[in-house]
């Protein structure tokens, strides 16, 4: 009798230990953020000074724009490697419109749009590039990795062609042409905080609302969980996927506008490897690469972890080469932890069914 009681209690205790481990894995982003903040606060004097924090959050905002946009893509078990290139291209389009204008050779004139017109034009272009990715993936069954890799090269090449490989500088505009004010997007403040930070939190709020409160958000998770079942239940899988990639491109365009505004210049190589930081932030935040699981809050915290890690290493004087090594290790660990969490959740689901 005693033997049977011990045998009965063993699975319960093991499961209890696994439950604690699963909880820790789910909270990994907050734990990582706390540990990184504690480490750099101890190692770097004045790390949490108000001025330093604002600068760091401005840097984090760029990665957050990309990460928030790609979260839906990854929840559907997709990937978007083109967001860094879209960022650079959209910045180049903004620079081209400000410095060169829309040339009409047949009339011998150039039209210089105002900033209030340039911004929506660039956002639409970013969204359209994302939509093309979605259409190629859904209509022609191109694997997301291959499709967005190809798009990355096409868009990066288009950025080079737009300026002949040169940088568009002086994006402050010209008062006589009525296209001034672009630099305010990256430099102006509201209640002591840069516009970019406010934009980051607003975008996070909007996307979180879409994920939690709308039918579209529920469909995104359903597709990631089981695409075939979602289609049988009436979800328009193709349409949802196209919109998912459109949102990704749109968010990359926001990042492109902010970066060019902050630099008051547009360079065709801007955004190289930015997609890796964004993917790392999403996976760190608890979104599964297998799809069906993820949170917007987790993605935002993941962006903070990646951003603080990068800026902290710079403040410590760590070589850029070592920074790349450390980021790579973080990405690999994030994927390993994600796989461990998936296995534990699957095991817990089986135990509950029994």
From TrEMBL:
CDD domains: TM_PBP1_transp_AraH_like. One of its GO terms (cellular component) is plasma membrane. PANTHER family: ABC TRANSPORTER PERMEASE PROTEIN YPHD-RELATED, ABC TRANSPORTER PERMEASE PROTEIN YPHD-RELATED-RELATED. Pfam families: BPD_transp_2. This is ABC transporter permease. Belongs to the binding-protein-dependent transport system permease family. AraH/RbsC subfamily. It is found in: Cell inner membrane. It is a multi-pass membrane protein. The keyword Transmembrane helix applies. One of its GO terms (molecular function) is transmembrane transporter activity. InterPro entries: ABC_transp_permease. Keywords: Cell inner membrane, Cell membrane, Membrane, Transmembrane, Transmembrane helix, Transport. The keyword Transmembrane helix applies. The chain crosses the membrane at residues 30-57, 64-97, 103-130, 142-162, 192-211, 242-265, 271-289, 296-315, 321-337. Its main location: membrane.
């Amino acid at each position: 009798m005693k033997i049977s009681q011990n045998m009965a209690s063993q699975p319960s205790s093991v499961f209890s230990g696994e439950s604690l481990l699963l909880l820790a894995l789910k909270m990994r982003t907050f734990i990582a953020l706390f540990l990184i903040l504690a480490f750099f606060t101890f190692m770097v004097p004045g790390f949490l000074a108000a001025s330093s924090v604002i600068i760091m959050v401005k840097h984090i905002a760029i990665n957050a724009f990309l990460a928030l946009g790609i979260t839906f893509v990854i929840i559907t078990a997709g990937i978007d490697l083109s967001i860094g290139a879209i960022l650079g291209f959209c910045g180049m389009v903004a620079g081209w419109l400000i410095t060169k204008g829309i040339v009409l050779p047949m009339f011998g004139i150039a039209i210089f749009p105002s900033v209030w017109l340039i911004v929506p034009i660039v956002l639409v272009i970013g969204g359209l590039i994302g939509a093309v990715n979605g259409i190629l993936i859904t209509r022609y069954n191109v694997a997301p990795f291959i499709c967005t890799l190809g798009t990355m090269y096409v868009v990066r090449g288009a950025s080079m062609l737009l300026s002949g490989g040169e940088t568009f500088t002086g994006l402050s505009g010209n008062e006589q042409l009525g296209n001034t004010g672009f630099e305010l997007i990256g430099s102006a403040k509201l209640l002591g905080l840069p516009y970019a930070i406010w934009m980051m939190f607003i975008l996070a709020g909007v996307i979180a609302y879409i994920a939690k409160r709308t039918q579209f958000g529920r469909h995104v998770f359903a597709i990631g969980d089981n695409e075939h079942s979602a289609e049988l239940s009436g979800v328009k899988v193709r349409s949802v996927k196209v919109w998912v990639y459109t949102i990704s491109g749109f968010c990359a365009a926001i990042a492109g506008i902010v970066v060019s505004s902050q630099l008051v210049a547009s360079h065709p190589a801007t955004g190289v490897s930015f997609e890796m930081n964004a993917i790392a932030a999403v996976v760190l935040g608890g979104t599964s690469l297998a799809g069906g699981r993820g949170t917007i809050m987790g993605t935002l915290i993941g962006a903070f972890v990646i951003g603080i890690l990068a800026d902290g290493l710079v403040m410590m004087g760590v070589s850029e080469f070592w920074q790349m090594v450390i980021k790579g290790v973080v990405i690999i660990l994030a994927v390993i932890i994600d796989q461990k969490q998936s296995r534990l959740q699957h095991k817990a689901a089986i135990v509950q069914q029994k």
